Amino acid sequence: MQYAADDASDVAYSNEGAYLPYRDIFFAESLLDESVFVQNVRHTFDRMLTMVSGQSEFDDAKFTVTCKNLQGCDRIGWFAMMNNKNRLNFCPRFFTDDYLKSSTSALARCDSINLKDTYLTRAAAILHEVTHTNYIIEIVNRENGDSYAAGMGTGTTTSDSCRMESNSYAELVQEWFNTEDFTYTNYACSGDIISFNLYVPSYITFFNKDTTDCESTTFWYERRHYDQHQSGNYVWLTTDLRKELNNLIHKLNSLIQSTISDINTARNTEQIHYINIDYALTATAAESTNTTKTDEITALMDAGLIQLPDADTCQAVLGSDPDPYAVFMCNVAVHVKSNSSSLIAQSLDQANQAIANKDYSSQDVSWWLPTGQIKTFHARSPGMMFYAGAAVGEMLSDWGFENTFGSILHHEKSK
């Protein structure tokens, strides 16, 4: 590890002339002409030095080291692996295979080795692996994007950590324009770059405050259910609570509006736009019936059991970019193994009993659906149509056209 730090330090701080020949060979002339090229190289290797030296005070520059024979260690050319969770794993052959040399042996042959020899050292391999982290390449963590902009729980989904959906309103807006000359990009997991027009939709008021149907429904994530007797020490979705929660949404939307106004004023631009769609979606906010849920319940019934992964091995085999549901099930497996009488363990037992009894209406089964979590408080595919229509309407209005929000929605629904 010290040799890796020394290598990074040499590039970051040594005399520029020491590596100019390598720079000229391996990089295009267009890059060499850039005045900031060397600065960027130094900056990157300085961050690599910060990371491998283990002296950073920032959590995103810290990492853990494991020495396990993980899945992938048997692949040709794989000696170590690192992911954006900052876990560096050394495969057994990292220390034993002759293909990788120690830095000590390379330095002993300093007069006769070439660039390839220096690259095939364990120190160089460590530097290569740390470039797989968000800290080195300086990107915003993509795992915590905007679930509304990503269209969570609609259409088909990608399996990466950002979980972009086929019926996100960005996809629907792009489909509406239907031309290669116009690109509406979904920046749900992209960070804070705003060198483009940004359209920010309002949040919706989630609850119907005018009905008593929800009075006996719990407001607790881990044990959400309906009980007309309201037994147990639960928070219930009373009319007063629903009004209070809706008011919080109104206050949040007001904050978003004022923030957009402040930013536009400070930047002397109208680059950020507020889309008020709460009124359009309120009527559909409580809608929950859909074919996807029915299909998922049927799939669980056909499987006959909610099978948890092996608690001892599941974390090691998740990979660097696992499906969030796989992560959830692995975490449950680990939890249940050490807490067999917990509420989650009880829910799993009750769900499996309902599956054995072919009880399609069981509330316990719904909690374990693959999309059950992401569909809570998120619009379904028809709701995404409203988002898309509102975005298109606002854009047309900004461009000097009449805001034809109603006709856009009619056009989308008639497809």
UniProtKB/TrEMBL annotation:
Provide the GO biological process annotations: lipid metabolic process
Stored Gene3D superfamilies:
Collagenase (Catalytic Domain)
SUPFAM superfamilies in the cross-refs: Metalloproteases ('zincins'), catalytic domain (SSF55486), SGNH hydrolase (SSF52266)
Judging by the UniProt lineage, the source's domain of life is: Eukaryota
Query: Which GO molecular-function terms appear in the entry?
Result: hydrolase activity, acting on ester bonds; metallopeptidase activity
The record's section on InterPro entries has: MetalloPept_cat_dom_sf, SEST-like
Return the protein name. Answer: Lysine-specific metallo-endopeptidase domain-containing protein
For this protein's source organism, the top of the classification is: Eukaryota, Fungi, Dikarya, Ascomycota, Pezizomycotina
